[in-house]
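Figure S7 source data.
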Amino acid sequence: MSPNDSATPLTNPVPLIEVVNISKYFGSVIALHDVSMAVHAGEVMCLLGDNGAGKSTLIKILSGVHKASEGQYLVEGQRVVFDSPRDALAHGIATVYQDLAMIPLMSIARNFFLGSEPTTGWGPFKRFDINFASRVAREELIKMGIDIRDPAQPVGTLSGGERQSVAIARAVYFGAKVLILDEPTAALGVKQAGVVLRYIAQARARGLGVVFITHNPHHAYAVGDRFTILKRGRSAGTFAKSELSREEVVRLMSGADELDELSHELQQFARTAARQEQDQLSVVEQQLAVSLEESDEMFHQEP
Ligand SMILES: Nc1ncnc2c1ncn2[C@@H]1O[C@H](COP(=O)(O)OP(=O)(O)O)[C@@H](O)[C@H]1O
Ligand SMILES: [Mg+2]
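Tokens for the predicted adenosine-5'-diphosphate complex:
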């Protein structure tokens, strides 16, 4: 135990971002209904839920892609309305999508500064400042714990996990306070997923707030501090890690409840089907009886 442990600083009670009673409608589809959620500095908030639960819709609202139909969005206590992802970015909210906006044939340094290229020289001699870009990209990646051999190396030669970490390091460098990750580990193997989880933990250690969406309960439990569970567009609650066991997270995410419901439904169905079958059988029996009677009558008819 270090002497500093007792002096853990109080976390800022004002969340970095917060949504209050948010709803989102797409025509008659209710994608989200009355959902509230907050993310504080230095925490990883995991968003859990089945396919179609509304996770992506919620982060699209947070990242300025969609506007909520109802409810409020607050950034550091101030109400905001974002017209585009650019507005969200200007407030320090960066989203790393699964299909990363990177150009595989271009260098790590180039990709790191894609869209905000540093320049050197003046007038017709102005050009991309490759020295500055290479140095910063390398330094920033080292801060995230990744030692790239050569910033001139094409991004396409990096592994999936390393590519994610370049995207995360880039967001942090450009001043992100909140990092939103929609299933960053979904397409990765165990080892590469571990790499990404480490960067998520790094980002938290540097005081960022992280919104982490994953289908993998083990990934969620490894880095999550709090868990918000969405079910068919509604919040099923937010839980601190101390309130949930790994087994409960696994159960919540495996859809065990839904499976119980389904097996109940299947039993009902089997019973109704049996009853219908019985009904059909009796109809057939009756018809048979009638036709037997008829034939009997015919057989016994007096000539
Ligand atoms: N642009 C859209 N137009 C119409 N319906 C949508 C749109 N985006 C999402 N939905 C619907 O909203 C619900 C939640 O979807 P989504 O947020 O993608 O869920 P998740 O990411 O949890 O799988 C789904 O029923 C989906 O079909
Ligand atoms: Mg989704």
